[in-house]
Design brief:
Shape of chain A: globular
Low-confidence stretches of chain A: none
Largest sheet of chain A: 4 strands, mixed
Strand content of chain A: 5-15%
CATH topology of one domain in chain A: Butyryl-CoA Dehydrogenase, subunit A, domain 3
CATH topology of the largest domain in chain B: Butyryl-CoA Dehydrogenase, subunit A, domain 3
Largest interface: A-D, 60 and 56 residues
Structural class of chain A: alpha+beta
CATH architecture of one domain in chain A: Up-down Bundle
Helix content of chain A: 40-55%
Strand content of chain B: 5-15%
Distance between the termini of chain B: 41 Å
CATH class of one domain in chain A: Mainly Alpha
Oligomer: heterotetramer
Number of domains of chain B: 3
Largest sheet of chain B: 4 strands, mixed
Helix content of chain B: 40-55%
Order of helices and strands of chain A: HHHHHEEEEEEEHEEHHHH
Number of strands of chain B: 10
Distance between the termini of chain A: 28 Å
Mean pLDDT of chain A: 96
């Protein structure tokens, strides 16, 4: 047992981080929010980095890595709020031709969980294919042929959504097992994205608290702020441990219950993302309430993620079943 | 301890309720958030109607057009306007709940005569000029300078978080008149006309996306000395008068509104599905709603206590900080619950599938400022700890 | 409307406070805990002060006051952790001969709520009469003739309990209406007792934080402690407003829904008692963890109260019903 | 990132599990809390069995009787002993998890040879002498004086919160050897024999009612200079070594135990009734349990991370403060839930009606010290904020 990153994993992590830092400095967020935040150039960059085909076998043009590696990558995407249907397209690699290479942009609707209605599809305008998860099937629908009403004002300015009023049945690509697997892997990816949000919210707030002075001193010297930041750090580190463990548990036989590890990671990381983003706004004070500063983008994305691949409440209920079994 | 309203109070309630029942529907729905001319017309128009009917300045002196009613009648007013979902004070906020009460308490007779009746009639929109980029929680460290030249102050500085600056005719402006005095001792409180040369207004979009706030730059703006409220360099004390009004009952209507909002969230929970049930079928969610209702009831009882106490002293007490702390965090939790109940519909800020996303999300996003503005929760806890409990000051 | 105490109420409050302060200084708590905390002298003092007959009509030897006044008195009893079945005996005044005068010591079992089993009776050894509340009846049982096993170590050292394994049916003294009324009034008294706990926990902690020095200064000067105390104060004041309002709403026609006002007060005051007592222990630090210092007695009593006349969860559920109606 | 245990780890696990399956039942249930001679015999007897079987000092050097196993084998050890509900370290706590590791890291060869084997064999019970009435969170301000006279220190002072003082043979004792130096620079770390003349022990009952803690008075107690660990006046650095061990994995077994406890609470919830249902029928309660399980899983994953890191550096990292913060508050919430599920049975600290009140209440009452002892949560937040995040120090 060695819970540290391997050299390859560290390289993967720092490579994707450097790329995301370069592509999406915080100054770009407000700019991206003005138009369609789906950026084809960014998307093909992600594809080239292997984000979508990361877990597809090398024989199929993928990178052949595991969910633990995907969790590292998705945490980095979360840190920089990379826009686009990254989780769905990643999940679709191997199921939908062109997904692994990013040429086919895949989105989805999870109708197997508690939050089915209304059918709001993220990044609809950019999609080629829509995957629909139901309790007993996975279907693919041609997104370009689908009618949907774009929502004028999405909650997250970087996550446009469209309302699909009438969903035709699509081509069946799998049954209950596949749906369950995709929901589980999706929850792990959401946990990883949430971890990234929790991390960056803490880092932003810490940096701001060192710089911002009131009453003649940096506000990070006041215990009320210092202790909020300490709690943010603790949440982030616990989330990191849980997310990494979920990935490794999923990839490696005999380590533990896969569904439990992922549900736990999703609950803890979701909580960390939401609470850290809220605390970040509070620590930024008035500036945290402005559109131009990054904190609110993190809260809004955390909110979006909280509705994807099962709510925290659903994962908690599932964990309770395991506990009660 | 008598929570019964008197017969006179109840007559006032009946009369007000009847009037609101007629007038609120007639005034129509509020205009879109971005349409400022329409919002000004809507808000000031409503204020004018209140004035004409004798409901403006419920607790302001009759001499200046107020109704000078008792504390209990004010409560009745809050309850009934909230109950009727009457238009919010909107652009009249600073004039009616901030600057106006300060002038009532501290202004000269000329200032009272000049401003109070116009504020009550909806003829004078006010804006705020308190915070600065370097003076937020530490408001008293503000740097905007006012140099006296003859009978004018020449004002230079940079204000931020100015509510309604782009539609305001007058600004409650804090300036430093003595740069050499200790920071709390060199501040003055000015009524600054916003049409003066040298004022530049730059809108400041918030995370809710809209434009109530601005940054305002003052470049050698010449404000008459007669527009100063109170003595020169006594502005910090006066500011605290202003803030006490804000922390006390300025949000009273909002507090009652919140009870209605919680009811709406419960109603929503009965409509939205979770698997094969509704969200309301969940015992945990119901208890959460019940808990919030208990807190809202406690809050409103606390406001009544505070109003009863203030009726004697004439000034909101320090418990305003306790009310603000509790109210703002409670508001955030109530409104956050609304977003949670929306489920996936909460990804849209426009109503989708007949669910009230626009309003619920807007309310929650706006609520995020409540624990920051008008003295952050951290500042309020310091006030409660130091000024009420007598704990040692921060070093 | 005037929410301030009347002169009579202020006098009632300060009279009972002065008496309790004199009878039960904190030094006495550990001493009382050593033997049977039910103290006959204290009990007759309470009776003389009119605590039990407070709301009984003057024609029946009572004081003829209302629930608002009782709430003031019970908050004072809570502040000093007055031991004995004060709430049950107070409720029994008018139902059980001798209760109003304190000569008959009355305890009870509330079997109409969620927490019926096991049948643990507080202060059993001191009881003459046991009232049993059921959903559809109120019965009185001769306590002296009842078999019960005393529990060797009660949770609250000042609240001995005994286990009644087999409960005979008693003499019926009322039906569903009476049971509901007693449960409601009982909840109001519990709320008032809880308010007193929340208050004293705050006052103790504040005084300690002003005295105790670490790092060369009073610990109350550190924001982490200062802000905990501020939150304690806020909780206490909100609880006070709710408890006073509940009493007045109950006594006065047309003010509001009686059941709602009492449920709200019970929820808010119960929360305040528990959280303030916990915070008091934390602020006292190591000393808060000792048997000799007062804080733990407050937490343990808050715990006991949380199981009496409906849990917070039950009151929340009831409030939700009103909200959803 | 490889969470699989090696074949060697799994062999170790199988061997340990088999041994525990035999020995734990044989050792019988723990004696009553108040029977200290029996507790000492029980705890040290178990330690002796561990030693004889080769399971004492899992990570201690072989030279002193330890097994010197890898970090992962330590984790296996924690997991298996928790799984088997093996006896808790009990009176061996200070020797095995506090003083012992400090001597391993900082002691002289003589000190190691003298104490380590005896601690591992359960022959030497240790107690703690750190806190003083005036030095709690501010431990470095301790005042117990040690004046050097020849080759002895003459120690005078008053210690509090001394765990196991009344049964300990040696005390890890912090004393001030240079009263003129800055407070962190004048402290030394002594191994004080508890039989020396001038030591008076007074039991300190806790809110849980029992007697693990004492106050200890030192009146001109003569401790040999050779019993000092590390250099004179270097005791603060050494203390931080001790505390890092405590904050790191000293509670590892307890953390896994907590998962079992949560399972027991869930099982209890299925037995107790609420109206016509069981407590477990409530969706809100179930989610609360699920949430706690998620946090326990995260905590254990964090411990694994920390152990993996420490395996390289040889020392627990600063993240021990994060672990302690999270663990202690989580422990309180889990154990508090147990009390809540008990309902009215929670009014008794003895088992009534077959419900496990004694254990559940005892566990929660004990848990109240966790956020205070070994550096309060407030102190841990300062450490995380200042030493990990680099925020300015408190003034």
């Amino acid at each position: 047992m060695d819970f540290r990153l391997t050299e390859d994993q560290s390289a993967l992590q720092s490579g994707i981080r450097a790329w995301c830092d370069g592509q999406l400095p915080h100054e770009r967020l407000a700019e991206l929010a003005k138009g369609d935040p789906f950026d084809a150039k960014l998307w093909s960059g992600l594809a080239e980095m292997g984000v979508f085909g990361l877990r597809a076998p090398e024989s199929e043009g993928g990178v052949g890595l595991g969910l633990a590696d995907a969790a590292l990558v998705f945490a980095e995407l979360g840190r920089r709020l990379v826009p686009g249907p990254v989780a769905w397209t990643h999940l679709a690699a191997g199921l939908v031709p062109g997904a692994a290479s990013g040429e086919t942009v895949v989105g989805g609707l999870d109708l197997a969980g508690a939050l089915g209605e209304p059918h709001l599809v993220e990044h609809f305008g950019a999609l080629d294919v829509l995957l629909v998860l139901r309790a007993d099937s996975v279907e693919r629908v041609d997104a370009k042929a689908l009618a949907a009403e774009p929502v004028a004002t999405p909650l997250d300015p970087l996550t446009p959504v469209a309302h699909v009023r009438s969903l035709p049945s699509g081509e069946r690509v799998g049954g209950a097992d596949l749906a369950a697997r995709l929901r589980l892997e999706g929850a792990a990816l959401v946990a990883a994205l949430s971890l990234g949000i929790a991390e960056m919210a803490q880092e932003l707030a810490t940096a701001y608290a060192k710089e911002r002075e009131q009453f003649g001193r940096a506000i990070g010297g006041f215990q009320s702020i210092k202790h909020m930041l300490a709690d943010m750090f603790v949440r982030q580190e616990m989330a990191r441990a849980a997310v990494w463990a979920a990935g490794a548990t999923y990839d490696q036989d005999g380590v533990g219950d896969r569904a439990r590890a992922i549900a736990s990671a999703r609950v803890v990381a979701g909580d960390a993302a939401m609470k850290n983003a809220r605390a970040c706004i509070q620590i930024y004070g008035g500036m945290g309430y402005t559109w131009e500063m990054p904190p609110h983008y993190y809260l809004k994305r955390a909110w979006v993620l909280s509705t994807c691949f099962g709510t925290s409440e659903e994962h908690e209920a599932r964990l309770a079943e395991m506990l009660g079994a | 301890m008598d929570l019964r309203y008197s017969a006179a109070d109840e007559r006032f309630r009946a009369e007000l309720r009847a009037w609101l029942a007629d007038e609120v529907p007639k005034h129509g729905p509020p205009p879109p958030a971005h349409d400022w001319p329409a919002r000004v017309a809507y808000d000031t128009g409503w204020q004018r109607k209140l004035f004409d009917a004798g409901y403006a300045g419920i607790n302001w002196p009759k001499a200046y057009g107020g109704r000078e009613l008792s504390a209990t009648e004010q409560l009745v007013y809050y309850e009934e306007t909230a109950r009727a979902a009457a238009p919010y004070v909107g652009v009249n906020f600073v004039g009616l709940l901030h600057g106006g009460p300060t002038i009532v308490a501290e202004g000269s007779d000329e200032q009272k005569a000049k401003h109070l009746p116009r504020i009550l009639r909806g003829e004078e929109v006010w804006c705020q000029g308190f915070s600065e980029p370097g003076a937020g929680s530490d408001l008293a460290s503000l740097k905007t300078r006012a140099v006296r030249v003859g009978d004018e102050y020449v004002v230079t500085g940079h204000k931020i978080w100015c509510s309604f600056a782009h539609v305001g005719e007058f600004c409650e402006l804090l300036v430093r008149t003595d740069p050499d005095a200790p920071k709390h001792r060199g501040i003055s409180w000015l009524i600054c006309p916003m049409h003066l040369p040298g004022i530049e207004i730059r809108p400041l979009p918030t995370l809710a996306g809209e434009g109530e706030f601005s940054e305002v730059f003052f470049n050698d703006v010449r404000v008459p000395v007669s527009a100063r409220v109170g003595a020169e360099n006594d502005g910090w004390r006066i500011t605290n008068v202003t803030l006490r009004f804000e922390r006390g009952t300025a949000f009273a209507s909002e507090m009652i509104n919140l009870q209605r909002v919680l009811g709406e969230i419960a109603a929503l929970a009965k409509r939205v599905t979770r698997h094969d049930a509704t969200a309301w079928d969940d015992a945990g969610l119901r208890r959460e709603c019940g808990h919030l209702l208990a807190e809202l009831d406690a809050l409103w009882a606390m406001v009544k206590r505070s109003v009863s106490e203030a009726a004697q002293s004439g000034m909101p007490g320090l418990e305003g900080s306790a009310i603000k702390l509790y109210y703002t965090e409670l508001f955030q939790r109530v409104s956050e619950l609304g977003v949670r109940v929306l489920g996936r519909a909460g990804l849209a800020r426009d109503d989708v599938a007949g669910l009230p996303s626009r309003q619920l999300i807007h309310r929650h996003l706006n609520s995020l400022s409540l624990t920051i503005a008008a003295g952050s929760s951290q500042i309020q806890r310091n006030i409660v700890g130091e000024r009420i409990l007598g704990l040692p000051k921060d070093r």
